[in-house]
Protein 1
Amino acid sequence: MHMYDIVIKNGKIIDGAGNPWFGSEIGIRGDSIVEVSRMPLEGERVVDAKGLVVSPGLIDSHTHSDYGVLRHNIGLNYLKQGVTTVVTGECGGSMYPLVNETGRRAVRRRLITGTKDPSKVSVDWGSLGEWRAKLERMGIGVNHIPLVGHKTVRDQVMGSERGRDLVMPEPEEIEAQREIIRAAMGDGAFGVSLGLSANNIYPEECIEVLQGVKEYGGVFHNHMRSLFYTLRDAVRETIMIVERSGVPGLCCHVYGRKYEGWGKSIEAMRQIQDARDRGVDVVADVYPWPFSACANALALFIGGGSYDERVHGRMEEGLTVESMVEALRGATAWEDMRKELIESWEAENEENERRRKLLWERSRIDAPSTRPIETTPVIAYSKTHPELYRMNFTEVAEAMGMDDWIAALRQVIIDDGGMTYLGTTTTHPEDRKVVISQPWMMFESDSSMVDESPPQPQLKPTHPRGSACTAMILGHYVRELGLLTLEEAVRKMTGLTARWHGIKDRGLIREGMKADVTVFDPATIRHNATYDDPCNWATGVSTVIVNGEIEIEDGEYTGKLAGRVLRLN
Ligand SMILES: [Zn+2]
Ligand SMILES: [Zn+2]
């Protein structure tokens, strides 16, 4: 009999292809699954999975882990949920490839956020190949599936000013973008992520630059223009980009958000299914958490430019939560901040309207208009006013018995000492059920890596969904609601995600596959993270094996760093 490095015994195997569970033993040698057998196997180490499910390592289809990995290289939030692989470089932005000062500067700004000693931050890579070498030298806990952020490429070719504007690039700018993308695809990228949310890019440009992906058999992800009332246009646009570029596409975080978006995602599901029925390779993913982005309410009072410039840029200049709360208290500074908020919102509104018009004239895409700020974000967390949960600013003012919503918000922030977090939008629970059930729907955290809880409050808070995606699907949607079978949920987080992205040797429990394996208890797996405690890890996962190394044993991290940056080709 062969002696394996690791043998997993007594578990219910859910193979990731959607088959009903079956009993077998798994023999792992080196980084591979060598045998799956009903005969007893012998191993140097034996994992007893009695009463537990053994599945392929779970895959998170959409993360921003490339931003977090240099500081949090383990990815404990993911490992604790049984995740062995994450897609990175999402929503149009990635840490690679860097070809000039514009790119390096943007990345440096990101990295400096929350760093005690900015002088120690160095950007010493350029290509995706160099990025891979850096991560693998440092050691990473989970595998990465790297996508190239289109805006990262565009800004470097067109300059950060022009790169942010809604202009059709010159032919030589298109070609330059394609060249950078081709080089990254040659370095093993799986495709490109588009970030169309700010109405900054025409679909015609996307179709052109995606030719650099097509040659390599890659895919694209699209953070769509709208998740509100024009969701239908945004989905139609994504389908059109797939058809005209010939590159398979994924609609990211498809939810119809707050009020005017509710019900829209059900229509979006139909659009995607119709497109698939006529042979268009389009899929989607979604995060199970009910709120989107998590921002500190203080960020509203920092005017000028994009969110990144406002928050990261000003933190680079030494701005802190404490200094901002202090400024909010002061009568003179307050008047300035109030003016700043109104003016910057109006300027943004005007700019958005200009772009909407251009977008309609050229591409016949209806993008959403800016809504009044006081009805847009909602309170996701308030340290001292829990009763304001889910309220928009108009409702906050009402609850506080004040006429002026800006003054009410100021009061809340001061009471909270800066720990007032906003979710921009909320989704309807009934919509979520329909969306989550689609057979081609993958699951994402839309978050980054985190190994330990950062001190609170943060100007750029950690979103609890980073520790509550796969665990929430398996605990809440499978066990508590019975919305999906265990086998179907596992398939969507393993076989489907791996196969659609072109990964041939992961996502299944089968001989010859890489040994990414997760053992969990379906009766207890759950998420525990909250806004207050975003790093309260998920529980119920007992063993996680990454490339044949046991990284989680009896629920605890073993210190191993066996992750790799995967290659498409
Ligand atoms: Zn996004
Ligand atoms: Zn994202």
Protein 2
Amino acid sequence: MFCLQIFIGSLILICSTFCQNCERNPNNASMCTFSGIQRSMQMDELTDSNPDEIKRIKFVNSFINRIPIKLTEIYKNLVDLDVSNSLVCVLRDQYFKGGKLQKLNASGNVISYLESNINNVLQNLEVLDLSRNRIQVLEDNVFYYFTKLKYLNLSHNEIKKLPANFTSYTDNVNVLDLGNNQISSLAGDFSSKNSRSNAVNLSNNLLVSIDPMSFKNLFRLNINFNKLEKIINFQGTNIKELLICGNSLQLLIINKQLVILDVSYNNGNSLEIDFGSESALECLKLSNLKLFDYTDILANISKLNNLMHLDLSMSNLTTFDFDNNMLPKSIKVLNLMNTQLKVLKNFKNILTAAPNLKEIILNGNFLKDKELWDISKKFGINVTGLEITDETITEEIKTKTILFSDHNIIIIVAVSMNILLFIINLYLTATLHA
Ligand SMILES: *[C@@H]1O[C@H](CO)[C@@H](O)[C@H](O)[C@H]1NC(C)=O
Ligand SMILES: *[C@@H]1O[C@H](CO)[C@@H](O)[C@H](O)[C@H]1NC(C)=O
Ligand SMILES: *[C@@H]1O[C@H](CO)[C@@H](O)[C@H](O)[C@H]1NC(C)=O
Ligand SMILES: *[C@@H]1O[C@H](CO)[C@@H](O)[C@H](O)[C@H]1NC(C)=O
Ligand SMILES: *[C@@H]1O[C@H](CO)[C@@H](O)[C@H](O)[C@H]1NC(C)=O
Ligand SMILES: *[C@@H]1O[C@H](CO)[C@@H](O)[C@H](O)[C@H]1NC(C)=O
Ligand SMILES: *[C@@H]1O[C@H](CO)[C@@H](O)[C@H](O)[C@H]1NC(C)=O
Ligand SMILES: *[C@@H]1O[C@H](CO)[C@@H](O)[C@H](O)[C@H]1NC(C)=O
């Protein structure tokens, strides 16, 4: 019996390395995992007793260099294929013939080229993740039939140029990630047809200029770390969130619908932002700016009637005057972490300056003012980063108490010594007299 168990055990062990059985998910019979496939040869021998049931296949810890040729013929109902983190170098139409694939994840492979004929067989695709590959060339009509595509991730590739008519073929794509490529120019309208959460990421590319109108109806645009300079005008667009860090802007003109703006790490020493009138801005991040002069930009910020969160951390701001650098009354959180601040002027007027302030972050400054602590306690503002804290105050009290009790002991000892000396004295006097 024992022998038989060992025998069956080793058979299972051998089988799992050679037969490539589909490992059913115990909670979901339609999901199947193939693990540890090291060679392409093994792949065309994928087996399963009931392939029609399988909707989702995932390869884990595998180093396959191509997708098994008959995969979609064997698994006719496959809708979701995950071949991420393998060594696949090309996507061919014959892999997907007759398939109904809706989601394909080929992230983290070594694909360098996308042939235009794959779009004939991937017409049902809604999610395509090709991030972290080596794609350099996208053939002109490669996305022609991808009419159902909603999510397209092409980030972390080597794309220099988008194919002609790219934006008209990707009209339904709500989430488009083109970050970390080498794109230097754009054409077409990137807004998708029908979404309120439409997001485009073009961060870490080589864009020198953009036409904001090509993002007219986006919800979120991330264009961080490009080479944008001079003047950019977003007026007339409906963008709600704009991330435009790490460029060399001189003048940014925003649209009134904008709610979140991040302009951190812009490396010019003068930056002007025209917020227009009646701006909806609630969150403004100006972290890591090194401006020659903050006077005018702070004056413009003071007019933002809806602003709740202002981040000026890591800037080279040296003073902040609560009387003169008027904050909008709506402000709730002020982040002044790691600045060059040595003094917060007129902090005692904070309640008039910013009646809604809940938190002020002051870590990494040169401020040690006990007055700040007292005032913030008084008004219930959360001050983080001051050297004085509740604990230091308690420590102070404790130290005093200890000193006091030491003192007590000394008094007690001194008094007792005196009494003792008095008794000795009495005794000595008595014996001497006797
Ligand atoms: C099984 O997995 C599929 C995805 O392949 C999913 O659509 C379905 O909801 C899952 N069913 C259960 C019961 O979790
Ligand atoms: C694709 O796979 C990678 C790695 O397994 C994962 O991080 C990523 O979220 C997946 N993409 C999608 C769209 O599910
Ligand atoms: C795209 O893929 C990259 C790398 O896999 C990932 O970091 C990023 O979050 C993805 N983008 C979106 C919008 O999901
Ligand atoms: C782009 O679209 C126009 C019409 O909208 C068409 O004339 C042209 O051939 C297309 N170009 C490519 C390369 O598909
Ligand atoms: C692009 O931006 C989106 C949201 O702003 C984010 O989820 C995604 O991870 C970013 N992708 C890269 C490659 O940074
Ligand atoms: C302040 O706003 C005005 C327009 O309201 C703009 O012309 C000017 O450049 C802005 N200044 C700064 C320093 O942002
Ligand atoms: C802040 O940095 C800029 C650029 O390096 C410099 O021109 C300016 O003088 C600095 N201001 C202060 C107060 O250090
Ligand atoms: C104060 O702010 C810090 C940092 O944001 C947070 O961890 C802490 O919970 C806040 N304390 C109170 C009393 O709000």
